Prior knowledge:
The protein is mainly beta. 5% of the residues lie in helices and 41% in strands. The chain contains two helices and 13 strands. The protein has helices spanning 81-84, 181-186; strands spanning 3-7, 28-32, 37-42, 46-49, 53-61, 73-79, 108-109, 117-120, 125-130, 136-147, 154-165, 170-174, 189-190.
Amino acid sequence: MMKRTITLAAVAGAAVLAAQLPASANSTALLRLRGGLTLEIPSSWRVYGTADQVRVVTGACARPKGGYFQPRCDSFWIIGPKALRTGGEGFRRYDPTQGPYYPASDVVPCATNPKYGQVIGKAIAVGYRNIGVAHKAHYRVWPGRCVTYDGGEQKSTFDQREWYLPKTKVLVVDQWATPGLSTILKNATWDN
């Protein structure tokens, strides 16, 4: 099995991170994040962003370098402390007990189809999940609806899953039900 390493500390402020090795069915990459957190991800996944806002693209993506609400991009986000300062609805500080990660004050495009807006409801799952050994994350699942801008007619649904580590100020946000992500997080390793 071939492995490569992507280290974000070395690219703080960089616009794009991307793998240079060809992906094979059995190859993986080690994604090193803040606080000593390392995820082992498939090499076919591509990593973009900065040390504070990382998008891991897991499939089709129209604009992988787009911002957080960029639609039509099979991906998940790893958010750091700077982005968390304005990550709550209305640009408040992110707090998993107060609402989902939603750095906006209006209705934003739905992840699956930008002609609809997204509306996120109350958490339907609340608890804790391990990210690696001895690191418990606040875990929430927020139900989302894709609705028409004129009239609010529901067109589709999604779940926004969030894992938040308050000590390291790391948040993982997934609106695409990324296959295997829960296991990848559970099997994460820590340097410290």
